[in-house]
Amino acid sequence: MANLASDFIGIKSPNPFWLASAPPTDKEYNVRRAYEAGWGGVVWKTLGSEGPPVVNVNGPRYGAIWGADRRLLGLNNIELITDRPLEINLREIKSVKRDYRDRALVISLMVPCDEESWKDILHRIEDTEADGVELNFGCPHGMAERGMGSAVGQVPEYIEMVTRWVKQHSRMPCIVKLTPNISDIRKPAEAAKRGGADAVSLINTINSITSVNLDSFSPEPMIDGKGTHGGYCGPAVKPIALNMVAEIARSMETRGLPISGIGGVTTWRDAAEFMMLGAGNVQVCTAAMTYGFKIVQEMISGLSDYMDQKGFTSTADLVGRAVPNVTDWQYLNLNYVTKARIDQDLCISCGRCFAACEDTSHQAIAMSPERVFTVKDDECVACNLCVNVCPVENCITMTELPKGAVDERTGRVVSDYANWTQHPNNPSVQAAE
Ligand SMILES: Cc1cc2nc3c(=O)[nH]c(=O)nc-3n(C[C@H](O)[C@H](O)[C@H](O)COP(=O)(O)O)c2cc1C
Ligand code: SF4
Ligand code: SF4
């Protein structure tokens, strides 16, 4: 069995699966059971400054998006940071860490944006023997209006300044958690690096309204007839998170900065994808909230089987493996030609591919009177839409034309790699000639 042991910025855990800072990690009772279920680490639910505890709403705090089978695809929340007293959290963290020395325990923090507040909280947590801190610059609701969370995360200068304070006043490894509610994720990551962060984690939740009640005319979740924007997470956000992780992993300025990947991780495959794009480990929230702590067991066995199959001996063999294959559009091979192929044995004649291609793509699928569907190679631009709308897996596949073959649509012979920077239609190529 492959060795899943993980060393993330010096924080060791038996596997790379950590629970993200959220309700699954908000108390000793939960964290102990999470460790027993097999989680390699946890980031404790965000702690704030000492003082009157945070107040949450007393009505619904979640909204959701579901697939046709009622499977949860996206979760929206308006919950704040921990609403339990700081003293109790600190006592519980210390007690859990004492009993689970082999597991990672990172404390998430969010306090007002002044040096004294950060110095004070760092001093308060020192005694817990936690393995590190994660700075929550990501929460998009409630705390942002008070000048914390994503209000800090959206200003790179603040990120750099706070990270620097944290590194100055603490010897703990410091992970900066980034908000996706920003146009270029590389900027806050660069700021975190400049401030001395040991790693970044991303993504926190995305600003969102999941639905509107058409009878009460209010956004949901609805609190006494009113709603507000919340933080979106779960499987629906994974593509956004993957792209942001990849952007940081391949940027010259942030290359090599360790990344903890978060956002929609539900299966071992999701985790492997994040790691391939540069994440040293992953954090999970919605999947644990949907299916319970035991889902980590499928993640452990699935990743381990995959690594055995590929001959990977440690998780380090996975990390960043796909990064060199993430490129800009202009470098894609324009001489890579494929055509859609329909497997007639699998086809159930539903006609979805025909409707999609006929109405919104390139009129490249023919339907016979007997409802047999075939691809017209002289029209097919290989867009892949039919593959994505077909309800039968692998019924339509894209097949590569070999070099030397003629593309019936363009009449051109398939030749060697050439991209847009070399294409005769590119104005800069024309200018150079
Ligand atoms: C109910 C809820 C509460 C959360 N609270 C926190 C928090 O206190 N601190 C934090 O850094 N992130 C918080 N998050 C964000 C998660 O840690 C995570 O970044 C996000 O949910 C994306 O991961 P996922 O798609 O696996 O859920 C919360 C998420 C949810 C759903
Ligand atoms: S790949 Fe695109 S163009 Fe080709 S058949 Fe499918 S939908 Fe039509
Ligand atoms: S969408 Fe798939 S199953 Fe339906 S007709 Fe087209 S190829 Fe057949």
Automatic annotation (TrEMBL):
Pfam families: DHO_dh, Fer4_21. It catalyses: 5,6-dihydrothymine + NAD(+) = thymine + NADH + H(+); 5,6-dihydrouracil + NAD(+) = uracil + NADH + H(+). The keyword Protease does not apply. One of its GO terms (molecular function) is dihydropyrimidine dehydrogenase (NAD+) activity. Its EC number is 1.3.1.1. Transmembrane segments: none annotated. It comes from the Bacteria. Keywords: Iron, Iron-sulfur, Metal-binding, Oxidoreductase. Involved in pyrimidine base degradation. Catalyzes physiologically the reduction of uracil to 5,6-dihydrouracil (DHU) by using NADH as a specific cosubstrate. It also catalyzes the reverse reaction and the reduction of thymine to 5,6-dihydrothymine (DHT). NCBIfam families: PRK08318.1. This is dihydrouracil dehydrogenase (NAD(+)). It comes from Cereibacter changlensis JA139.
